[in-house]
Amino acid sequence: MADGHWTTERSSGGLASAMNPLLRRRGGDWIGWAGDRGDEDLKERSAVLQDWEQKEQCFAVELPSDVATGFYEGYANQTLWPVFHNLPSQLKFDAAAWEAYLEANRIFCKAVAMRYRPDDLVWVHDYHLMLLPQMLRQELPDAAIGFFLHIPFPASEIFPILPRREELLEGLLGADLIAFQTHGHLQQFRSALLRVLGTESKVAEVAVGGRPVHLEALPIGIAPEEYTALLNQDETTAHHYADWVARYKGQRVLLAVDRLDYTKGVLERLRAYSHLLQSSADIKGKVALIQIAVPTRERIDTYQELRTEVNRLVGEINGRFGTPDWTPVVYINRSIERAELVALYKLADICWVGSLRDGMNLVAKEYVACKPNGDGVLVLSEFAGAAAEMGEALLINPYDEDRTASTVERALSIEQQERRERMRALHNRVLRNNVFHWGDRFLTSLEEAVSARGHYIDTQPKRLRTSEIRDAYTRASRRLLILDYDGTLAPFAKQPWQAAPSPVVLRLLSILASEPRNCVALTSGRAAENLDRWFDAIEGLWLIAEHGAELKPPLATAWESLRSPVSTDWKSTVLPILEHFVDRTPGSFVEEKKYGLVWHYHMAEPEFGGWLANELASMLEAMLADTEQRAFRGDRTIEVRPVWANKGEAFERLLATCGQRDFVFVAGDDRTDEDLFERIQNGAWTVHVGPGPTRAAFVVRGFEAILEVLQMFEQVI
Ligand code: GDG
């Protein structure tokens, strides 16, 4: 409401700044919340909104007042916002606000479904609507749904703090594409999936049931011409600029533009500035910090407190250092016109972005766009997403106030040539990676993700048909059979030593291995001694131990390692961690093998064991990132071993001796067998035992089905 009448205006936040030019150029409907209704004249309000529908293709979603408050000021901005910015001390949670968030997402879902037409692309924006992708998936199963997170994704130790974390992740996984501002945020999301849901993912994809969800890092850009046009041709901008050049004559201008939000580091900046004025006597009277702080979320206490504290600090600095002809901080606590903003960008010698954490930060890019000649320095927080692609800026840790002050001092005295080289590199990149490029990439990735669904379904495994495989086996003259042991030829036992092979398995292996047309290999994650004890007596059988780390050809007396020499120094670091988890998880234990260490939790309370396994897996993932070892999840196990120790590598070695084969049968039940399925070309009978995602061509329900197939082979003469 303004002067008793309803008005509409485009908001000045980052999302609006990015999407407006994109929508203008590409078209599309914008469906968004129209803001609080209050109790005012609703007829007039509806008329204004209808006008926007017709003229701007902006469709208002109305939220009842209590829902709006719980949703926006509650769960979105007091629970999600602080946690996603790694500032959990600011978190406030209230179950009623969560219900409102849920309800607001439902209302959005209805609004989208109502406007949806087949072949539309639905693009959901930001943390307010994290449940919407899944809700839409239920309502519109075939729709193309993309989600972009404008803010950062929190660190994996912080995300689990979030009340209702599972629902949020599941909500997002309804999308075909989930995109983030940086690779770092994407990695954090993957860690959260692992830690909270126990869901493993690949760098760019996670499988949800029979559906692939694509993951991508797509840093947002700006529409540079919206700034350069004002910079070069706008009279108002030119006026402001001329006025201010005269006004700030003899002073260097430092500029800061932020929503007045605690994540933007306004207080930290003011303190660093105070430090600078204190420590560099010759700077006094020669610099001015212009701080634009746009009011935001003013109904939330923390924001009111921030405003009070900023007012106090500005007063303190000006009171302490100011003179009758010099104001050290020019503080503007309202939104200004774009023309004024551009004039300020043009004027400023330094733009100071001090976010404590930020998805991207468009101000950094807008400033750079307004410096075509390279005259200006960007001082940028390393915790803003923008830092990932703006390495030529002078980077700061905004929490380190005296070092930040030194960097700003350096920015004031940087050599012209260096300044221009840095700024020109930034300028070219900002122009190239603009918002249109970002939008096109998002929509193209979404389309690709949707078309990959078909391929995904085509590559889903089929049920194994015994008659077909019998014919193929019978016809073949050079056969290769590779069989996993635990879970594939025998049921899982609670303790590894309880899983001794049954007489049936021993007989089948002996008969099949003695058939001259066959080359038969038993692969296992078990240690070599264990396989020797059970299977050494079977003539003609290849043995592959520790997932492919070691191999023993028929009749050989010694095992061959796939790599040598092999260092196992890493065990001394990993073992204490696994032992710590044994202490925390009654019923679990550690198995030490030659190449690997395994934490088994079959006998632990399943939910508790699974929960700690998620924690262990993500801890090991981070710890082992730069090493040759990885943590692999098996059936209620977590195993640490070298990456090269896999069944796929052993397969190559096997082929080198057995030669090419016209019938290849590979059966396995867990993750380690997937390496093999992946390596083997089309035409092979790759069979996955049990439920769960797989790259195998066929599936069977349990180990009994594999024994039936082997019995059928046995009967073929
Ligand atoms: C979120 C993420 C991410 C500011 N003051 C005025 C004004 N602005 C404009 C700026 C800029 C935008 O507001 C602020 O964008 P940011 O990126 O800095 O931050 P958020 O609002 O927090 O946005 C952020 C962004 O989404 C996009 O994905 O970068 O990390 O938090 O465009 O110019 N505009 C006008 N007057 C002002 O006084 N006209």
What does this protein look like?
This protein has 717 residues and is an alpha/beta fold. The radius of gyration is 31 Å and the shape is elongated. The termini are far apart. The model has no long low-confidence stretch (mean pLDDT 91). The structure holds GDP-alpha-D-glucose (GDG). Residues 12-15, 17-18, 150-151, 220, 257, 259, 292, 294, 335-336, 338, 341, 358-363, 366 line the site of GDP-alpha-D-glucose.
Q: Could you write a compact summary of the structure shown?
A:
This protein is α/β, with parallel strands linked by helices and 717 residues long.
Looking across the biggest beta sheet, what order are the strands in? 14-26-25-24-15-16-17-18-19
Q: Would you identify the regions where 5 or more consecutive residues have pLDDT less than 50?
A: none
Question: What class, by secondary structure content?
Answer: alpha/beta
Shape: elongated
The termini sit apart by: 88 Å
Rg value: 31 Å
Helical stretch count?
24
* Percent helix: 40-55%
User: On the 0-100 scale, what is the average pLDDT?
Assistant: 91
Strand content: 15-25%
Number of strands: 26
The major pleated sheet works out as: 9 strands, mixed
Small molecules bound? GDP-alpha-D-glucose
Note the topology.
Blueprint: H1 14-26, E1 30-33, H2 42-56, E2 58-61, H3 65-84, H4 95-115, E3 121-125, H5 132-139, E4 144-148, H6 165-172, E5 177-180, H7 183-197, E6 205-208, E7 211-217, H8 224-233, H9 235-247, E8 252-259, H10 266-279, E9 287-294, H11 301-321, E10 329-332, H12 338-347, E11 350-353, H13 362-369, E12 377-381, E13 394-396, H14 401-413, H15 416-432, H16 435-458, E14 462-463, H17 466-475, E15 479-484, H18 503-514, E16 518-523, H19 528-535, E17 541-545, E18 550-552, E19 560-561, H20 571-584, E20 589-592, E21 597-600, H21 606-624, E22 629-634, E23 637-642, H22 647-658, E24 663-668, H23 671-679, E25 685-689, E26 698-700, H24 703-715
Parallel strand pairs: 1-2, 3-4, 4-5, 5-7, 8-9, 8-11, 9-10, 11-12, 12-13, 14-26, 15-16, 15-24, 16-17, 24-25, 25-26
Antiparallel strand pairs: 6-7, 17-18, 18-19, 20-21, 21-23, 22-23
Helix pairs in contact: 3-4, 4-5, 7-21, 9-12, 10-11, 10-14, 13-15, 18-24, 22-23
The chain binds GDP-alpha-D-glucose (GDG).
